Amino acid sequence: MDVIIFDLDNTLYAPERELFSLIDVRINRYMREVVGIAASEVDGLRRAYWAKYGVTLGGLMRHYGVDPEDYLEYVHDVDVHSRLVPDPELRAALQALEGTKVVFTNGSRGHAERVLGALGLADQFSAIFDIRVADYRPKPYVDPYQAVLRRLGVEGARCVMVEDSPTNLETAKTLGMRTVLVGDALRAPYVDACVARAEQAAQLIGGWQ
């Protein structure tokens, strides 16, 4: 594998850290206090937007004219150090990997940088591709994957993707990538391997190399 593509949230750290719950709170507050959506409508709209657009931001941009940069800055304004600590085991596993390692996230670059810094992994990745890579179109749409491959100058067959979302791995598989699922989500036919933690994914991929 020439390139190993890692998702960020709930992949490079365990969901039990509950960092994303802080972001969830910020998303709900943004919808209520900045956009002016009634509190009783927030949960339903978020579910609908996730189903139709892949992320809440997509619906807010289309239906409320939300500035995506303002949204990304607001919702990712959380204290990552309150939930994350350096992960020396993952760091060692990443260091042992050959090839290019990158992060591909539906979040913002700034958030990714803060998470990697808190985990002690900032120097382990050569690039971060965030939701801006395809004009705010998120995974699992194919557009951002294609944009990432173009930026990297590689074909999907030369990549492996590590994710906690089976749906996101399905798109990766259609582009020829090998796929590794992190966590206890239901394994699907397009998942090549399933592991409990990110360091196990890195060790597994090292064996493939």
Quickly list its features.
single chain; 209 residues; alpha/beta; Rossmann fold; DNA polymerase, domain 1; 2 domains; six-stranded parallel beta sheet; globular
Would you give an account of this structure?
With 209 residues, this protein is α/β, with parallel strands linked by helices. The chain has two domains: 3-13 and 84-208, HAD superfamily/HAD-like (Rossmann fold, 3-Layer(aba) Sandwich), CATH 3.40.50.1000; 19-75, DNA polymerase, domain 1 (Orthogonal Bundle). Helices cover 47% and strands 12% of the residues. The protein is built from nine helices and six strands, in the order βαααααβαβαβαββα. It has helices at 19-35, 39-53, 56-64, 68-75, 88-95, 109-119, 142-152, 166-174, 198-208, and strands spanning 3-6, 100-104, 127-129, 159-163, 178-182, 193-195. It has a six-stranded parallel sheet with strand order 3-2-1-4-5-6, with helices on both faces. 39% of the residues are buried.
Summed up:
By secondary structure, this protein is an alpha/beta fold. The chain is built from 9 helices and 6 strands, in the order βαααααβαβαβαββα. Strands 3-2-1-4-5-6 form a 6-stranded parallel sheet, with helices on both faces.
Topology (SSEs and partners):
Elements: E1 3-6, H1 19-35, H2 39-53, H3 56-64, H4 68-75, H5 88-95, E2 100-104, H6 109-119, E3 127-129, H7 142-152, E4 159-163, H8 166-174, E5 178-182, E6 193-195, H9 198-208
Parallel strand pairs: 1-2, 1-4, 2-3, 4-5, 5-6
